[in-house]
Amino acid sequence: MTYKMIYLAQRNPGLTEEQFPQAWREHSALGRQCPNVQGKITAVTQCSRVLGEPQLPGTSADYDGVNIMVLRDLQAARDIWDDDDVRTVMRPDELRVFADHVVHFTLVAEEQEIKSDPQGNFALIGFHARPEALPANLFVQDWLALLRKQLLQEAGKNPVGRCVANAVILPPPPGYEFDLITEFWFDRLEDMAAMTDSPAAQVLLRGPHPDGRIASITVATQVTHRRP
């Protein structure tokens, strides 16, 4: 099983959109000074929102990036916020980079692989909340079925490389009550843009239960830092 911490970030208002990726990389560099953090988080992919016009259809400009962190195990997600390295090194730097402390916008999820190609350098990352009447397990099952069916039907017709769905498994922080996080990876920005232009592909971004409210947020991103 692959467990992840995934966060949907807004920058410190004192940073411009263009300054944010570098400030974020500097924050990540602090983690290299923290053996306890290195032991709990085995891989990091920082995905900054693609800037410029036109904005891709169906994507949000309200957030500045998504961080995907692969965990050593699920216990690491429970332990990390009380870790001495996090409290003394990482947390004091967070408000320089972000609008709030990271713990307040981080989700813990279990990965379900849909398509196993390597990650590209661009990703459409979606955060999805279920309708109130639908149990979380059924919502995730419906999403997985949709992704597998649509990607199979559209094989060769869309440029999606790697695709995974991450089911949220620990209680989310207030304001981030999402149940599933989807990742659609692409080698080129043009490929990502082509998917958002496709009516059939938009179904993959909206999900199986559109209910008239803002149940999904999709961010068009590019990788600005990755380790290992």
List the topology elements.
Layout: E1 3-9, H1 20-31, H2 35-40, E2 41-49, E3 65-71, H3 74-79, H4 84-97, E4 106-115, E5 122-128, H5 136-153, E6 163-168, E7 180-186, H6 189-196, H7 199-206, E8 216-227
Antiparallel strand pairs: 1-3, 1-4, 2-3, 2-8, 4-6, 5-7, 5-8, 6-7
Helix pairs in contact: 1-4
Explain this structure to me?
- The protein has 228 residues and is of the alpha+beta class.
- The protein has a single domain (3-227), classed as Alpha-Beta Plaits.
- The protein is built from seven helices and eight strands.
- It has helices at residues 20-31, 35-40, 74-79, 84-97, 136-153, 189-196, 199-206, and strands spanning 3-9, 41-49, 65-71, 106-115, 122-128, 163-168, 180-186, 216-227.
- The chain has an eight-stranded antiparallel beta barrel with strand order 1-3-2-8-5-7-6-4.
- It is globular and about 50 Å long.
- 36% of the residues are buried.
- The mean pLDDT is 91.
Biggest β-sheet description:
8 strands, antiparallel, barrel
Shape: globular
Order of helices and strands: EHHEEHHEEHEEHHE
**Percentage of residues in helical conformation:** 25-40%
Cα-atom radius of gyration? 17 Å
What CATH architecture would you give?
A: 2-Layer Sandwich
**Order of strands across the main sheet:** 1-3-2-8-5-7-6-4
Distance between the termini: 19 Å
- As for the CATH topology, it is Alpha-Beta Plaits
Are there runs of 5+ residues with pLDDT below 50, and where? none
Q: What's the tally of helices? A: 7
GO molecular function: oxidoreductase activity
Pfam family, one: EthD
Organism: Denitratisoma oestradiolicum
Protein name: EthD domain-containing protein
